[in-house]
Amino acid sequence: MIQAGLLVVAVLVATAASICHAQTAASVAPGQLTGKQLQLNIDSFEYVWTTVRDKHWQAKPAGLDWQAVHDELRPVIEKVSTMEAARAVLNDMLGRLHETHFAIIPSDLYSDLDGSSAKGEITTGMDVRVAGSGVLVTSVESGSSAAREGVQPGWQILKIGSTDLAPVVEKLNRTYARSTLRELVLREAILARLESKPGEPAAVEFLDGANQRITKSLTQGKPRGVLSKFGFLYPMHVWFDASKVANGVIGYVRFNIFLDPAHVMNQFGEAVEGCKACQGFIIDLRGNPGGIGAMAMGMAGWFIDQPDQRLGTLYMRDTTLKFVVNPRVYTFAGPLAILVDGASASTSEILAGGLKDLGRARIFGTRTAAAALPSVFEMLPNGDGFQYAIANYISEGGKPLEGLGVTPDVETPLTRESMLAGKDPALDAAVIWIQSAAANQKRETRN
User: Using CA atoms, how far apart are residues 102 and 69, in angstroms rounded to an integer?
Assistant: First the structure.
């Protein structure tokens, strides 16, 4: 099966603890570097250059004379005297590729990404997003510690334990200011910080709906769903929800990740088949970081009745993979809405962008993470992180999703005010569109 880029972030958070451990051995003091540290930077330079040479999907990465790039910058890295200068050389080299998924991530950043289990899963029952400089609770699971403590969507998280989140968010905002991965990285960073040992309470300070500071003691629980393992990815709990909204006339599904295909694909199919009389259907991919790319083709088959349709094409060094949609015996022909946000990435973008290009779905929410490529995250000899992509993805509309993402047809930004009022702008807009489309179809049928 095709594994789309379940993101640098998923791997980044999963390896945060080991990176932090590596800092102890590879960290450097301010000022001049020792001879050993200089050599570690040179070794890191060679590793980065060789990896791009051997694993980039183009034999001549970005059309460059890659050997000439090496020969130009190798003497420079040999003379640098600080870690900042060394990173500048490596980023100069990677910057010439003009690709989003090639980056050097400073080792000291991991102190802001580390969590006790380093998985970034939801264990307190709260999902979060960073809006501007604030961390907002976007949903609360029924029966969770957060729900028992009365936490509500729209509350702002101010502190976790003794850590004030404002400086953490500010630092990450600066680091990812020009990156489409900003929302995704910040969400995973906060979720990781919310984790602690099972059964141990964590003091979390909020700004509640009345703008009062209030502290709640939240106990860590088992993440929702069934534990699933695939490839190099950290084991993740997978859950799937299916329901009907708008008084039971519109189908709605949401799941947290494209893994565990045996169960998720079966549940997805049951939800679509159980909605034959529905006015429309909604797929909520907000916060879904992607996973197994082949699952997007299978899901699209429930809504495409024509053969030989594609969601897009993945280009690697030695092969090309086409995301061909295979129509099901029964396909849902009604209006289809897909909800996305800045934490929707990889396979989520392939499914949403592909169905949009085919004219089969209308997209609601905010722009996606623009991280559709299969990417790898590794630790360099000097302790820094190195992210690189191994393939390029072009949508059926002829555009790369990487660096651009999926732009919604209807933009519905997340706000604290709407959540405190119990509203979901993206879902509400999707419901209104489906009901309008269904009404128009009904009138056309009568005429």
Answer: 16
Determine the pLDDT at residue 31: 57
d(CA 25, CA 105) in angstroms, rounded, equals 17
Residue 109: the pLDDT is: 60
**Counting every residue, how long is the chain?**
447
Q: pLDDT value at position 382?
A: 93
Could you tell me which of 91, 90, 68 has the C-alpha nearest to residue 77?
90
Which two three-digit tokens encode residue 247? 């008084």
Residue pair 341/370 in contact by the 8 Å Cβ criterion? no
Q: Is the confidence at residue 123, as pLDDT, over 90?
A: no
Tokens representing residue 246 in the block: 């708008």
Confidence at residue 221, expressed as pLDDT on a 0 to 100 scale: 86
User: What's the distance, Cα to Cα, between the start and end of the chain in Å?
Assistant: 47
pLDDT: is 195 or 7 the higher one? 195
Sequence-separated contacts (24+) of 75-84 with Cβ below 8 Å:
77/41, 77/42, 77/45, 78/38, 78/42, 80/33, 80/38, 80/41, 81/32, 81/33, 81/38, 82/31, 82/32, 82/33, 83/28, 83/33, 83/37, 83/41, 83/382
CB 49 within 8 A of CB 96: no
Mean pLDDT of 268-280: 96
pTM of the model: 0.82
Residue 97 has pLDDT above 80, yes or no: yes
- 356/252 Cα distance (integer angstroms): 18
Cα 347 to chain center, whole Å? 9
Q: Which of 108-112, 115-119, 182-186 has the lowest mean pLDDT?
A: 115-119
The pairing of strands 280-284 and 336-340 is parallel
Question: What pLDDT was estimated at residue 447?
Answer: 65
Residue with tokens 């307190």: 124
